[in-house]
């Protein structure tokens, strides 16, 4: 059988969480070997584009490049927006995960995570990009299922479990039981939309233009899903004054940031509540007992678990290693025959 042969192969196969913000690579029998930004820097010379940097090196260039260098994020809202650039990025990450092409004696089998709400066209784009990047076989695993496995939820048992995976481009909400998604939904709101909301609020309130990296830093340092008492903590932020056109530094408070992202947080909570409304009674009873598990980078937003718990009345926990849960789960599905049913052919 194909699966039995598949599970006897040497440890060159890998699982990839191809995220809008970060790409995480899990290599069979080795675990997580790479976690880098999903960014590619392209240099144009004599009309020809070539890859100058990928990952962390490319992210350092964002917003600071000359005219002939462009930094791109080939994924938007959890799906591939630029297939050629995505292919180059996947190829680079495959080589880096294995220490260079010379270390690859055969084309690896790759399991790639996809949003549960992605279309067949979007899934085909992911499959084609991975195949062209060097995969001998591509399996797909839905992100909420991978997140649940990575978080240690009992997805193979007749027990209802709920996972909320907040990524850079999408928020995936799913109720799982017996290796399947009893109900799943996704909303294209994630870390990127929070960053955009912070950028827009600072421009509107302070006439200051800030870059992507600055907005992300603000979110990580003082972002909160609930309004603090008073102004909360503050940080200094630098940008370009839209009135005078010169560089300027201002002070931003935790309360301002919480207000800026309130609408996006509300959308995420609304999606969770909708999923609960569509959950079968027996599964809902299990969720009352076990609560909701949050994964993904967005789960690290301060007090987001508290905001979700207040709205639903259910216990909410953030998974250990929330950032790498999806890749961990996909890797476990690749290694463990008990989970092989969650992998689907691309």
Number of strands: 19
Residues in helix, %: 25-40%
End-to-end distance, in Å?
Answer: 18 Å
Q: Within the largest sheet, what's the order of strands?
A: 3-2-1-9-10-19
Estimate the strand proportion: 25-35%
Stretches where pLDDT is under 50 for at least 5 consecutive residues are 1-9
Q: What structural class do you assign from the helix and strand content?
A: alpha+beta
Query: Overall mean pLDDT score?
Result: 91
- Evaluate the radius of gyration: 21 Å
The description of the largest β-sheet is:
6 strands, mixed
Number of helices: 12
- Give the overall form: flat
Describe the structure.
The protein has helices at 2-8, 56-61, 83-97, 120-132, 143-150, 191-206, 212-222, 254-260, 262-277, 281-290, 304-312, 325-335; strands at residues 14-18, 22-27, 31-37, 40-45, 48-54, 69-72, 75-76, 79-80, 109-114, 137-142, 161-166, 171-177, 180-187, 208-209, 234-241, 247-253, 292-295, 316-318, 344-345. The strands form five sheets. The protein has a six-stranded mixed β-sheet, sandwiched between helices. It has a five-stranded mixed β-sheet with strand order 13-12-11-17-18, with helices on both faces. It has a three-stranded antiparallel β-sheet with strand order 5-4-6. Strand 12 (171-177) and strand 13 (180-187) form a beta hairpin. Helix 3 packs across helix 4 (120-132) and helix 6 packs across helix 7 (212-222). The longest helix has 16 residues, at 191-206. It is α+β, with helices and mostly antiparallel strands and 346 residues long.
């Amino acid at each position: 059988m194909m699966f039995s042969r598949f599970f006897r192969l040497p440890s060159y196969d890998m699982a990839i969480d191809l995220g809008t913000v970060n790409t995480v690579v899990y290599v069979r029998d080795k675990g997580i070997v790479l976690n880098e930004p999903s960014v590619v820097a392209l240099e144009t010379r004599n009309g020809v584009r070539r890859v100058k940097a990928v990952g962390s090196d490319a992210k350092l260039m964002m917003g600071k490049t000359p005219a002939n260098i462009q930094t791109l994020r080939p994924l938007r809202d959890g799906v591939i927006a630029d297939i050629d650039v995505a292919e180059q990025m996947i190829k680079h990450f495959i080589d880096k995960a294995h220490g260079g092409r010379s270390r690859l004696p055969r084309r690896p089998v790759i399991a790639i995570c996809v949003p549960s709400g992605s279309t067949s066209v979007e899934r085909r784009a992911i499959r084609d990009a991975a195949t062209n990047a060097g995969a001998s076989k591509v399996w797909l695993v839905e992100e909420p299922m991978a997140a649940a496995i990575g978080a240690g939820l009992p997805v193979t048992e007749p027990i209802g479990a709920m996972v909320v995976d907040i990524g850079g481009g999408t928020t995936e909400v799913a109720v799982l039981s017996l290796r399947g998604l009893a109900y799943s939904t996704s909303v294209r709101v994630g870390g990127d939309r929070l960053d955009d909301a912070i950028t827009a609020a600072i421009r509107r309130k302070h006439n200051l233009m800030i870059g992507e990296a600055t907005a992300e830093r603000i979110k990580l340092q003082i972002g909160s899903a609930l309004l603090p008492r008073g102004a909360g903590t503050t940080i200094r932020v630098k940008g370009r004054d839209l009135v005078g056109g010169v560089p300027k530094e201002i002070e931003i408070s935790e309360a301002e940031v919480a207000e800026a992202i309130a609408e996006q947080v509300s959308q995420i909570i609304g999606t969770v509540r909708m999923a609960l409304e569509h959950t079968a009674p027996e599964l809902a009873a299990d969720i009352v007992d076990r609560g909701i598990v949050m994964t993904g980078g967005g789960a690290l937003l301060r007090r987001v678990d508290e905001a979700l718990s207040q709205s639903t009345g259910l216990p909410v926990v953030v998974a250990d290693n929330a950032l790498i849960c999806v890749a961990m789960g996909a890797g476990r599905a690749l290694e463990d025959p008990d989970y092989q049913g969650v992998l689907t052919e691309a």
